[in-house]
Amino acid sequence: MSIDADRARPAVLLNPLAGDPTDADSHIGGPLLWPIDEPWPTCDGTTHDPASGAEPFVGAVQLYRRDYPELPFPEGADLLQVFLCTLHHELPHAHGPDVRLVWRDSSTVVELIEEEPEPSVQEELYVPTVNALEPIRYTEHADKVSGGTKIGGFTPWQTEPVEFPCPDCGAAQRQTLSLGTHEPSGEDVEWEFGREGNLNVLTCAKDVRHTVTVHVD
Ligand SMILES: [Zn+2]
Ligand SMILES: [Zn+2]
């Protein structure tokens, strides 16, 4: 489908609100459902200030399929976990935190990690606050794009739109997750990306586990 023909897409505003979510909930900034016997994701530090060295990623968002069936879950997965390295990175299309996605089968998690590792140093601007989610479903139009935290929809460009091919297979990538500095509700997560913009995660349309593009605009 050409970009011109594709003018409307389903989208879900996550609509974060102060709350006390658990690892069994979809949330921003709460505890993750992470198994005790799996290594926690680590940023090797090659794209953040090298003086900081390797640091653990921070659990930023987790979304269950039962709450967000619109996400492109691969077969067997029912939980998306989004991690940020909360230091400043110089990435090809982003000056900001780096991102890892983990697509998990929650039914295989038996024993949970006791304590999530914490980085020794973080950029305050990239650290999420704890939020429950009150999702709002809507159809997003290409000429009326929300800058709130959302899944699906269109990339909220502040600069010229760009298309990203998958680095692994060349297929088109699609807008999957956007973390917004400002929420339509006014209840911001208190993180900031770019100049009060958005951190966008684009995934391969053929295989969501292929390398993602992180884009800050
Ligand atoms: Zn890093
Ligand atoms: Zn691909």
End-to-end C-alpha gap = 25 Å
Radius of gyration: 16 Å
Trace the largest sheet across and list its strands.
Answer: 10-1-11-12-13-14
Considering DSSP H and I runs of 4 or more, what fraction of the residues is helical? under 10%
Question: What's the level 1 CATH class?
Answer: Mainly Beta
Q: How many β-strand runs?
A: 14
List the SSEs and their pairings.
Blueprint: E1 8-13, E2 16-18, E3 27-28, E4 42-43, E5 55-56, E6 58-64, E7 79-91, E8 94-104, E9 131-133, E10 136-141, E11 150-152, E12 173-180, E13 198-204, E14 213-216
Antiparallel strand pairs: 1-10, 1-11, 2-9, 3-6, 4-5, 6-7, 7-8, 11-12, 12-13, 13-14
Bound molecules: zinc ion (ZN) (2 copies).
One zinc ion (ZN) binds at residues 43, 45, 48, 55, 85, 87, 89, 98.
Q: Describe it for me?
A:
This protein is an all-beta fold. It has one domain (8-216): Roll (Hypothetical protein YwqG fold). It is built from no helices and 14 strands. It has strands spanning 8-13, 16-18, 27-28, 42-43, 55-56, 58-64, 79-91, 94-104, 131-133, 136-141, 150-152, 173-180, 198-204, 213-216. The chain has a 6-stranded antiparallel sheet with strand order 10-1-11-12-13-14, with no helix packed on it. Strands 3-6-7-8 form a 4-stranded antiparallel sheet, with no helix packed on it. The chain starts with 7 loop residues before the first strand and ends with a strand. The mean pLDDT is 95. One zinc ion is lined by residues 43, 45, 48, 55, 85, 87, 89, 98.
